[in-house]
């Protein structure tokens, strides 16, 4: 899966591939095999392919990740390239209408109800794809006319999620 990590104004391409029980991560031209094991609510054990092991804490709020490792804290926004392209289109000015899934996944949470008034950029629902939770945001101001999905639903790319009317 190709992602973009935003940190201190920089956009860093990251590629993550599942490999057995771990992952192969490529960032800034460097590739590493890593195992990441959850050890608590926010505590993880990270082991690199050379045997080096770290304990880290991780807190996530939408696409923003706060990671504390070896006394240092890093806050990074992780987004997929499709989201960046969608944001560019939205910034160019888009209207309401049917909001569709940009990738296949599972609906984790629906953040709005039918009849809710939403502002452009407001969170509508959380779509889990490839073990990453992606917040689907409103492309424009409007009213949620229809919800086509519920938590637990599995959707394909292009599936209709909800409709926003003016």
Write a concise synopsis of the structure shown.
The chain has 166 residues and is mainly β.
Topology:
Layout: E1 2-7, E2 10-19, E3 22-27, E4 30-38, E5 43-48, E6 53-61, E7 64-69, E8 72-79, H1 81-91, E9 97-100, E10 105-110, E11 117-118, E12 123-129, E13 132-137, E14 142-147, E15 154-155, E16 160-165
Antiparallel strand pairs: 1-2, 1-8, 2-3, 3-4, 4-5, 5-6, 6-7, 7-8, 9-16, 10-12, 10-15, 11-14, 12-13, 14-16
Highlighted features:
single chain, mainly beta, OB fold (Dihydrolipoamide Acetyltransferase, E2P), eight-stranded antiparallel β-barrel, four-stranded antiparallel β-sheet, 7% helix
Percentage of residues assigned to helices: under 10%
Q: Give the termini distance in whole angstroms.
A: 35 Å
Biggest sheet overview: 8 strands, antiparallel, barrel
Structural class: mainly beta
Name of the level-1 CATH class of the largest domain: Alpha Beta
This entry's quaternary arrangement is single chain
What is the CATH topology classification name of the largest domain? Glycoprotein, Type 4 Pilin
- Which architecture of the largest domain per CATH? 2-Layer Sandwich
Count of β-strands: 16
Q: What's the total helix number?
A: 1
């Amino acid at each position: 899966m190709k992602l973009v990590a935003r940190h201190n104004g920089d956009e860093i391409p990251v590629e993550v591939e599942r490999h057995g029980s771990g992952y192969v991560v490529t960032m800034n031209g460097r590739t590493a095999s890593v195992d990441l094991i959850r050890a608590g609510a926010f505590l993880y054990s990270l082991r690199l392919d050379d045997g080096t092991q770290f304990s880290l804490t991780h807190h996530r709020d939408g696409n923003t990740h706060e990671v504390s490792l070896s006394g240092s804290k890093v806050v990074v926004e992780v987004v997929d390239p499709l989201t960046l392209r969608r944001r560019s289109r939205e910034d160019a000015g888009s209207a309401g209408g049917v909001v569709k899934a940009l990738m296949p996944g599972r609906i984790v949470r629906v953040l709005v109800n039918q009849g809710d008034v939403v502002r452009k950029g407001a969170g509508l629902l959380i779509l889990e794809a490839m073990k990453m939770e992606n917040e689907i945001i409103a492309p424009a101001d409007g009213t949620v006319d229809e919800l086509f999905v519920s938590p637990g639903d599995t959707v394909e790319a292009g599936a209709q999620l909800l409709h926003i009317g003016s």
